[in-house]
Amino acid sequence: MPRATNIQQVLEQLDAIIDESIASNSRLGLFAYIYRRTTAEIASEIALGNFEDNQRLEILDVAFANMYLDAYRDFKNGQTVSAVWAYAFSQATEPLTILQHILLGMNAHINLDLGVSTAKTMTGLEISNIEADFNKVNDILQQITNELQSRLSRVSPLMFILDVIGKNKDEQIIDFSMRKAREQSWNSANLIWSLGVGHEEEAIHKIDHVVLQLSKLIQAPNSRIITFLLRLMQKFETKDVRTIISKLKAD
Description:
By secondary structure, the chain is mostly helical. The protein has helices spanning 7-24, 28-47, 54-76, 83-90, 98-121, 131-152, 160-166, 178-195, 201-219, 224-235, 241-249.
């Protein structure tokens, strides 16, 4: 399948991954569904003309999406992918919670791919020109995050445990926030952009390594209590990918 050149093609390719994952009952489809939901929302905002530069935002969004789509295809074909994506994909068969599977994809895509794609989109341009639109996407994603958190309780009945434990600052479930991740990705984008074409590979490799360490914490938190609670949550979760996605979609 050729690389996507517009958001509609991105949505179609994400649908293909979701369908493939449902057919094989692969948990790789969980992040794909969440990402499809966010991409559709951003596409709607672009169609409404709600960004400062809607054409440029679509270019960035497609470049960003292609990093995930390329990684998925390359991994499936046995080719080399970034360390953090290789790790995320390899965990699909592990008995993790639905939330952990989703967070592994989010971590790789936001903390690595977003910074890289933003820097490359703004090559030869002033990167600060896209900052306002970049931050607007934060607001859109925050709204969707709140929505999805409530939907996840349909397939993970013990999700409320996260809310209870999360109120205790000493016992953070997973040190991961979409907004913080995007803030960090903006810093990474500025670093990569400042290095210029041909000089950024070492920096990208280092970022990949740092983000991989966070993925390992998502997979296996340091806290024994959190690990125990996650295992308990997983036991009561829906296991069928088709059912999970169907319940997440339901209005």
